[in-house]
Amino acid sequence: AVLFEGETVSYYDTTTFESEELDVLVGATAVSWNADESSIYSVLYDDASKKDALVKLNVDDGSVEKFVYFLRDIEQYELSVSPNESYVALIDQTSDTQVLYLIDLEDAARTNVYEAGIIENGAWSRDSNYYIFGGEYQVWMMNSQNKNVEELPFNTSLDLISDAINDEFYFVSTQEYNL
């Protein structure tokens, strides 16, 4: 587990109950683990380039790999690594217009795939082909292969999304919706 306590970010081993400060993640506001929990992804400011960068921290040896840089400051965000660790879906929630980026980790390419007033609560399909997310009483699904975003026929806000077997999704909403 990763704990955020003020400016301190710590790795907490749930098997040994030991914690270790992760100095490299100071300033991060969100993280996402890869499937085997050997790496943590986040956005950090890079002093050399003077830009925010998507980074991968290897938990075992502490090494950091930078993937892409952003042209604007990314202060508030959600991110999620695909199960096959080919993509990161990053929702930049810094400004009034929120942006969903799809980052291809194999070629370090960043694509702005969707913009809206509110984007939140995303989840990947188990095969990493789809990313479903919500906002503004809408539900959308992004195809990671062609980067198309499709609005799904639910008029609701999403409180929780979970993947399921056979590329199905389950979601929880406290709002009424119409099918």
Task: Give the topology, please.
Blueprint: E1 2-5, E2 8-13, E3 18-21, E4 32-33, E5 39-46, E6 51-58, E7 64-69, E8 77-81, E9 87-92, E10 98-104, E11 109-116, E12 120-124, E13 130-135, E14 138-143, E15 149-152, E16 160-163, E17 169-172
Antiparallel strand pairs: 1-2, 2-3, 4-5, 5-6, 6-7, 8-9, 9-10, 10-11, 12-13, 13-14, 14-15, 16-17
Q: Which key phrases capture this entry?
A:
179 residues; mainly beta; four-stranded antiparallel beta sheet; 17 strands
Describe what this molecule looks like in 3D:
The protein has 179 residues and is mostly beta strands. It has a four-stranded antiparallel sheet, with no helix packed on it. Strands 8-9-10-11 form a four-stranded antiparallel sheet, with no helix packed on it. It has a four-stranded antiparallel sheet with strand order 12-13-14-15, with no helix packed on it. A hairpin with a 4-residue loop joins strand 10 and strand 11. The model has no long low-confidence stretch (mean pLDDT 85).
What is the N-to-C succession of helices and strands? Answer: EEEEEEEEEEEEEEEEE
Low-confidence stretches: none
Taken from the alpha-carbon principal axes, the silhouette is globular
* Helix share, percent: under 10%
Most strands sheet:
4 strands, antiparallel
Strand order of the largest sheet: 4-5-6-7
Overall pLDDT metric: 85
Strand content: over 45%
Number of distinct beta strands: 17
The number of helical runs is 0
Distance between the termini: 37 Å
Radius of gyration: 16 Å
Which structural class fits the helix and strand makeup? mainly beta
